[in-house]
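PROTEIN DESIGN WORKSHEET
SECTION A - STRUCTURE
LENGTH: 123
TOKENS:
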């Protein structure tokens, strides 16, 4: 399974299609994410505007669901055009999930590739 974490510049010209894109930026980068995901893959967004599916899952009323559907129209079109799924992920601190992720990394089932490291003072 191939997963790419989108940074400031998409590497779509050098990157083969991937199964999942994890986007922490949103806006135009989110729309470009659909250019690198395989058909049947999924783009996951953690920054930006939720969609109607998220609004419904969180019990928001029909007005909010409609507003989120309208606001995420371009995302929905990009998702359909790429034959890929889309998911807005609401981030919240969860120690058990972080522990599970750490276990996956330690056992090698989840591989993390770091493109570049920066000294803490430069962040």
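SECTION B - SEQUENCE
RESIDUE ASSIGNMENT:
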């Amino acid at each position: 399974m191939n997963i790419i974490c989108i940074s400031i510049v998409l590497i779509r010209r050098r990157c083969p299609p991937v199964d999942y894109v994890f986007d922490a930026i949103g806006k135009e980068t989110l729309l470009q994410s659909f250019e690198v995901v395989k058909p049947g893959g999924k783009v996951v967004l953690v920054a930006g505007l939720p969609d109607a599916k998220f609004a419904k899952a969180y019990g928001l009323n029909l007005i909010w669901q409609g507003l989120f559907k309208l606001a995420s129209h371009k995302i929905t079109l990009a998702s359909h055009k790429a034959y890929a799924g889309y998911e807005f992920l609401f981030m919240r601190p969860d120690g058990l999930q972080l522990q599970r992720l750490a276990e996956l990394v330690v056992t090698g089932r989840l591989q993390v590739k770091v493109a570049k490291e920066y000294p803490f003072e430069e962040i």
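SECTION C - NOTES
The chain has a mean pLDDT of 82.
Strands lie at 3-6, 18-23, 37-45, 85-88.
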